[in-house]
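Entry 14. Ran structure prediction on the chain below.
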Amino acid sequence: MINPMRHGPSFRRSALALPLVAALAACVTSETRPLPKVNPIQATVQIPEAELLDVGVRIFDTNIPASIKDDEEALAKKRIYPEVRAAEASYLPGLLRATLESSGQWGAVRVVPEKAIVDVLVAGTIESSTGARLALRVNVTDSTGRVWIKDKEYAGVADLGSYKTEAALRVRDPFQNVYSEIANDMLAVREALASTDRRDIHRVTRLRFANDFAPEAVKGYFATDAQGVTRVARLPAEGDPVMERIARIRERDLAVIDTVDSYYANFADKMESPYGNFRRVSQEEIEKEDRALASARTRTVLGAAAVLASVLVANQCAPGDYTCRNIQSAARTAGAVGGVAGVMSGIKKYSEAKVHAEALKELADTFRAEVTPQVVEVEGRTLKLTGTAEEQYREWRELLRQIHVEETGGAVAAGPVATAPAQAPPPVSRTE
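Output, structure tokens:
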């Protein structure tokens, strides 16, 4: 038997190389623990109607990098599937809306078009979204221009318990914690506002809407201070005919917004099952892919180390000792063959990882086929509410302007919100 301690340092290095690399390349098994659940804080007291703020959640930004938007391979490496991301941009706001509604802390909560004027507006960008992890960047403002949340990232890993069964997936979204954290942060900001500030948000919302149609009629009622926050200076007189007319237009506008919101709700209902399955399998595929890549790295490193060790084995046999030479040669050959096999096994694992990535793309294509746009009737007009819903709503707002012109016999007037600095506004003329 060859004793490595009796020979030179080169033999000892080669003899120690394999176990050292094996130790470095060994897989580390992490324990999977249940994910702590975060729930939205529930209302425990009745909130005065004048302070019960309505919330609008806009369709999220898909955030597909323009530099690679047409490069499928580059997008796949980032786990971005444009058809899925576009669907998510409409679906995920509905999950946040449901979370806010379930807390009982808010008034009407809707998924709204871009131009909608609401008390509190939530805008989000999808930073990353897979079956394993979700990250959203969120901005929240109110109608006065006050910033509640600025460019904050909310991220979390999937609650694997939600993937166990179809029923579990329906009961709790895998990323419910993310939506609950957003809702609780919004609540914290609202609670920090004075009662008068919350009431002013309601008032400013109505005045901003009126300003869109009749800016001259609301001139002087409100102004924006140096901090960019709109303050109420005074309110219209009770029974003001212009304001009553605009109030009726506002009701029609809210009816259209409700229709748009119901469209997104129906869209979410259709999407729930296929998207839930997509995310579940996506999470499984990502896990398999990660395991395959880790195994590939380990096998490749160990195989290369075995080849290296066999090459570095020094000639330790005495001249004429053919038995020793045969054993040594066999050891070298076995090491090289085993090492090459390890490298090839690693390459095979890399191929498996690629197959899993392709499976994700196929799932995305299937998912795209299962979510289709809908057509709804709004005020006698047929609207196709898809990715162009924002344009449809802008057309609707123009129609509302025309209705206002017909009722008043005046010209369509559109102007910006008043921006004169508001120092210390006089008391409002009446309360709401």
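Confidence is low (pLDDT under 50) at residues 4-18, 20-30, 411-432. Will compare against last week's run tomorrow.
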